[in-house]
Structures are given as structure tokens and as C-alpha cells.
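Need a sequence for this fold. Nothing fancy.
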């Protein structure tokens, strides 16, 4: 099975380890990985900030970059969701709406792809210790991916999962929200860190790099001994 990796800007610029872990997990599960080098930003930051016309240029480039793909897989529920939003954004355009629908139909978040397409629930991972999972807003509320991360984590040997209090609350990242509304964002992420502490977990696990960058940054600033991991890194642990 051939998989085209949609790495995302966060992975490309800040968290390359997530991209490497994603590739290694998928290859171990029998996938052949393709990385379209012409991929750029999915356009979400600009689109959410109101620059619809400008963001469409990036979207068209992404549609073209992945046009050849059999499956598109991303280690970010937020960015994967953006591809599913393309058909609505290009609605009424006789050329790009059709192409956008084609891209959306073959795009999956990593855990969604592993469980729903590859039909794998145990990837053979092992990680000793206690952990809690942050459910990101776009991935759960918009993309609708809720059960697959927890299903895979429950099958990681040695890992003890504890439910995160207030798990449905936003961490305060929200892309440009954390820049434009920095004080509010700080209060939101402080609340999130407080709840993580309450679980006494050794690890905080998530499936969106943006959320993990935001929460992890706050954890580091306030000096809490909690290790932040993307779910791809957990699934790649042996």
C-alpha cells in the first residue's frame, strides 16, 4: 500500500522527530512511503485569519502535490481536517471542487488510517510508565476522530493510561489565536497543565503538533517534570 505523507508545517520546521516516527511506524506496518516535495502549508492559518483568497493559492498547490496519491496520511488531525474542508472552500468551482473532493476522500489522520484502513489495533509498541492523552479540538470535534488514538494506546505494552480531567477543553493554541489572544491563551494552557498534573502522569501524549508545542512549551517554562510525546513517537517505541 502506497502512502503519501502530509508532514505539516509544524513537523517540517519544528518537530521532525514526529515525521520520522510516522514514517517508521507506517513502514513497519507494510506501507511504502512517498513524500511529495512540492507540498507547502495547507493554508489553514491564513484561511482562519480571513485571508480566503490568498489561502486558496496554497490549497491549490497542495491539491496538485497530492493528486497522484493513493492515500494521504498526516500526523495532525487539525491539518488533515483542513483537506476535508477544501471541497466547501472551493464549492461552485467546476475544476477545483472536484479535485478537492478527491483529495478529501483519500486523506486520513495517522491513527485513523492505522485502525480504519490498515485494520491494525496493536502496532507492537512498548512504553513503560503512566500517561494521559490530550484530545485536540479539530481532530475530535471537526474531523471526528475520537476512538482510534485511545484504542492504539491501550494496546501499548507497559503504558498505563489515565483520563485527563477537562479533556475536551481547548489548550489555548488555536493557531493564530495564541498570538492574537496571548493572555487568554496563557490562562487556557495553564488550566490544561494543571489538569495534566492532577493525573500524576509521566507522559502527556497528543496527536496534534501545534497543541503539543503549546502545552509542552508551558510545561517547560513552569518547570514541570512531564515528558510530552506525539502519539507517533509512542507507537514507534519498542
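Here you go.
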Amino acid at each position: 500500500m502506497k502512502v503519501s505523507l502530509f508532514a505539516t508545517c509544524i513537523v517540517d520546521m519544528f518537530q521532525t522527530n514526529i515525521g520520522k516516527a510516522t514514517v517508521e511506524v507506517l513502514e513497519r506496518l507494510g506501507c511504502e512511503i512517498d513524500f511529495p516535495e512540492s507540498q507547502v502549508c495547507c493554508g489553514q492559518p491564513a484561511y482562519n485569519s480571513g485571508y480566503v483568497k490568498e489561502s486558496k493559492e496554497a490549497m491549490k498547490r497542495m491539491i496538485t502535490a497530492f493528486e497522484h496519491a493513493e492515500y494521504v496520511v498526516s500526523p495532525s488531525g487539525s491539518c488533515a481536517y483542513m483537506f476535508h474542508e477544501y471541497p466547501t472552500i472551493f464549492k461552485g468551482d467546476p475544476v477545483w471542487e472536484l479535485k478537492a473532493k478527491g483529495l478529501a476522500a483519500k486523506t486520513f489522520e495517522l491513527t485513523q488510517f492505522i485502525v480504519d484502513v490498515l485494520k491494525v489495533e496493536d502496532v507492537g509498541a512498548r512504553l513503560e510508565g503512566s500517561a494521559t492523552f490530550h484530545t485536540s479540538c479539530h481532530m475530535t470535534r471537526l474531523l471526528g476522530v475520537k476512538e482510534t488514538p485511545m484504542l492504539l494506546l491501550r494496546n501499548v505494552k507497559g503504558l498505563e493510561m489515565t483520563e485527563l480531567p477537562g479533556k475536551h477543553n481547548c489548550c489555548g493554541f488555536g493557531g493564530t489565536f495564541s498570538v492574537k489572544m496571548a493572555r487568554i491563551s496563557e490562562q487556557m494552557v495553564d488550566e490544561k497543565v494543571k489538569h495534566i498534573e492532577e493525573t500524576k502522569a509521566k507522559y502527556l501524549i497528543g496527536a496534534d503538533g501545534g497543541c503539543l508545542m503549546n502545552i509542552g512549551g508551558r510545561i517547560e517554562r513552569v518547570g514541570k517534570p512531564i515528558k510530552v510525546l506525539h502519539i507517533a513517537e509512542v507507537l514507534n517505541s519498542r
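For context: The longest helix spans residues 182-199.
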